[in-house]
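Record minuted for everyone:
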Amino acid sequence: MPASMNMSHSAIDEAAGPLLQSVGRAAETPNRLTRLALVEDDDHFREAAILELEDLGFDVKGYADGDALLTALADGIEADVIVLDWNLPGLSGIDLIPRLRAPGSSSRWCC
């Protein structure tokens, strides 16, 4: 059984704390859900973080890897904030940043 499946809710809450703080400023826009794309390969952590962020009023779409995010962006999803895990299978979060910032990219992100 993966270690992530053994995490208690308090451990997940503690691990998600920095994530929630890092996107908290985006939630200050009144009268509109902040659209957030969360890229995290740990299924349990991703789902827990999505639930927590939705409870805080975010409109969250989760992706298991960088390629899934790039496909979604190419298909026209909209996000105000993208939260990346650094250590992803295949295309890492670090590798995604230049692609998201590249001229001609379908995204408007700045890191």
Summary: The two ends are 35 Å apart (CA to CA).
